[in-house]
Amino acid sequence: MDASVTPIPDKPGTSLAQTTDFFYPLVDDPYMQGRIACANVLSDLYAMGVVNCHNMLMLLAVSKDMTDAERDVVIPLMMRGFQDTAQEAGCLVTGGQTVLNPWVTIGGVASTVCSDGDIIMPEGAVDGDVLLLTKALGTQVAVNAHQWMEEEGDRWDKIKNLTTMDEVKAAYRATTLSMARLNLTGAKLMHKYKARAATDVTGFGILGHAKNLAENQIKPVDFTIHTLPIISNMVKIAKGVGNMFQLMQGYSAETSGGLLMAISKEGAEGFIKEIKELEDCDAWIIGSVEEGTRTAKIVDTPIIIEV
Q1: For residues 42 and 53, what is the distance between their CA atoms, to the nearest angstrom?
Q2: Cβ(44)–Cβ(110) under 8 Å?
Q3: Is residue 23 a contact partner of residue 40, using CB atoms and an 8 Å limit?
């Protein structure tokens, strides 16, 4: 499961849901990095259908190699981004821990007390469901391509004839906004349209997380992915550096990725329509659920949707 769910012994029907995560900076903007970190932590609760977070703690490491001037600019901006996103989620940041470290890291702990009905356990997929995804793939490729462009080293030399600086910058902007967007609306719509199992797509890639979710199902079902929505121009960049990212194979890591869920076809259609109306963001039916042996695969020639 994406979050820890612990029944509270003296309060029947009530549980404590908690999750934690942290990572190194991915983007140049400290404020946006704070927003991404907070959205990434909360996403594990949203993947379980938990839409209300009561408390967050911030985990922050300050690089010992920073000058005082760098620290006094960067760290407050990261903290403000984290706090603003928590506020957007309706959550309080009540404390945390700050340490010195060779590298900057940021993350947090999210905790909430919820009733059993607030949680969608990731185990109820049935034959005939479809797989729905709420954010495009390719964030790791976009972030790395932007870094290579700025460094102008050997790796940029490998891809500069395949893409343009404008394409890389556009993908980087889209990726930053995607990673900073909360999965809160998606979690609310999971309840409305009766999603039966879900996870969020992060470090294991779309196929890695699909496999983990399939293994957790009560009924013996398989997940087949036939469509991959990918940030524009990231496919050709990924191919240009060999098998480094394994984007097409489904193992490219994502940060603060979308919700991947098993849901009825009718529910998926309603979900896709409403999330577009509420957030002006797309979601896609990317696969199917059928009887099987609790595994997942991507078809040999998946449909690629450039986003």
Answers
A1: 8
A2: yes
A3: yes
